[in-house]
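Problem 12. The chain below contains 130 residues. Write out its predicted structure in token notation.
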Amino acid sequence: MVREEELIGKIWNEDCLITMSKMPDNFVDLTVTSPPYNKKKNHKTIHKSDSWANGGSYIDYENYNDNIDESDYQELQIKILNELFRITKSNGSLFYNHKNRTVKHKIISPLCWISKSKFILNFYLNIFYS
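Solution.
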């Protein structure tokens, strides 16, 4: 475990599970995260020069395999969420940005694995209209 003063105000460029393992319990006030979606390079994103009309661009991670077995992906997300639970203060918050995905013609909601974590869910629905 790293001393608290060594953690504050630092950027850690490593696997989040390694970083969180250095943190004491009840240490974090707020986490905002948007994990990779395990889209097998089929997820599109828009760069400034791109548009949805032009097809967008594929996400290409430098050091992450976005094509792992679905059950392994869900287990990894549960492991990350449970570690976030451990380090989050009792009055802290987690904003976990993850969308529904389609895998083998089935819609998979992140609620499938969030509900298996230690977090208690509070919903905030944000609807965008085009």
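Discussion. Residues 43-54 have pLDDT under 50 and may be disordered. Students who got a different answer should revisit the alignment rule from Section 12.3.
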